[in-house]
Design brief:
Structural class: mainly alpha
Order of helices and strands: HH
Radius of gyration: 12 Å
Number of strands: 0
Shape: elongated
Low-confidence stretches: none
Mean pLDDT: 93
Length: 48
């Protein structure tokens, strides 16, 4: 899987979690935080 594909998948997961209405806010924030870290990691690799 290429870095671009990983970034696209992570971004999609972030959007899904952000839009999920039944999800507890704390759980949502935890999920988004870890996905943001992963996104930043792969973004740095993609631009290197």
């Amino acid at each position: 899987m290429t870095n671009h594909e990983k970034l696209t998948m992570i971004k999609s997961a972030m959007e899904t979690i952000a839009q999920k209405k039944g999800l507890d806010n704390k759980a949502k924030q935890r999920g988004l935080k870890s996905l943001q870290q992963a996104y930043s990691k792969y973004k740095q690799v993609a631009t290197s």
